[in-house]
Design goal:
alpha/beta; Rossmann fold
Length: about 450
Amino acid sequence: MGLLTFKGGVHPYDGKELSMDRAITACPPRGDLIYPLSQHIGAPALPLVKKGDRVLAGQKIAEAGGFVSAPVYASVSGTVKAIEVHGTPTGGKGDAIVVEDDGLYEEAPLPTVKPLAEMSQEEIIQAVKEAGIVGLGGAGFPTHVKLSPKEPDKIDAVLVNCAECEPYLTSDYRLMLERPEKIIGGLKVMLRIFDRAAGYICIEDNKPEAIRILEEACAQETRIQVRVLKTKYPQGAERMLIHAVTGRNLNSTMLPADVGCIVDNCDTVCAIYDAVILGKPLISRVVTVSGDGVASPGNFECRIGTNVGVLLEAAGGLKDGAKKVIAGGPMMGFAMYDLDVPTTKTTSAITCFLHDAVEESPSTACINCGRCVNACSEGLVPARLSQFAEKGDLETFEKWHGMECVECGCCSYVCPAKRPLAQVIRNARRMAMAARKKQGGR
């Protein structure tokens, strides 16, 4: 049987050899830790502390601001210095709680947990919600919402996204090698919620050691299987992953649950295990720091709120002359203009480069070569969509199915004219969604 995949996509240099053999190591924080109240899709969290309060590691410092929201926990012990506006790695700004680290790491007591077999589906979902878990692959959608579909009985496939197709990122790979029991344990927690579902651990075929370890680890599990995917970007995108593994298709108006699927990232599933089995809230995550612009690439267990500069120092610091730092990977990440920002729940990587490929490759006129069409996993015509977007013609943009773009960046990657197709289309999608919201539509 051929490897599971999808139509379209690209094969960029993946750079994974820089950090894939670097075991996860701790990144001790230093100085103030900053906790943005909005580290997720949905309503910002609401502060539970005030200036001058002493907090403990694992203490809830902000509660969910609604159903589509998530609480925030302190990752160190210390004193609340302020609640004020701060920047984030992706360039946004918002209210944040600032905690002065006292270096003691005193921990709040963990709640008493029941054995999984004795927990109801509602109790499991509540434990996930209370722990503040959101999608750690980058989207930041509150996980308890994802685990609460309208028709749970129709869910027959729970997919753990271990594809890690974004170049340079290796944090998920190290989790597969070092913590396979948490991945399987977290998946078993999810399967307790969805009684009719099978579990699939989905891994690209450029990770043979991870495939071997997880296949051995779940050999006795009757409801869990490893699915091997063709190595191709964006194999880990939700729609591509679902199509590759189940053959089902969904569009921009649908959720995975609409085709009977639940999809969660590898790191998210480990956090589910910690929350439900151990009673631990989400206060840290694994972050890859890589690229030719950093001295010692690696994978770091990083307490949420740690300054990005501290994380870069843990990786040996930026090399002299480094030109570009990206929050995330080079395909879907965001160029950073300020390193004095905190890591958040969705900070999966910091990628550093000696050269700025975008700056060094100015765009020219479209030559109508069609490469962007061949690369697009959604079968769109990115060159035309970008033209409509540049003219502000959102009506034609939508008629040409611009809202189906998954913003993977394949079109920009293959464009010989170096046109910023993905960025222009992304901006048009934001404008179209804002217009719909203003009109009260979906």
